[in-house]
Write the structure tokens for this entry.
Amino acid sequence: MEISNLIGYPAAILTTVAFVPQAWQSWKTRDLSGISLPMYALFTLGVALWLGYGIEIGSPPVIAANAVTLLLASLVLWLKITTKDL
């Protein structure tokens, strides 16, 4: 395994897992009053672009991390858009 992947995979796991509590809390409580819609929209777009970049350069850690993070960020964004803030 390349050294870049030895660094990339743990980084990908940590940064992706960091979004799980937010997505879970948002799903469970439907309280997204503390979530900024513009920030999450921009963040989700940025993650989608990082995923595209990872695909373009063929980097498995970048692809895996951003695919999962895009799913989680999209969930939170969708909840923010469709759920009335408490």
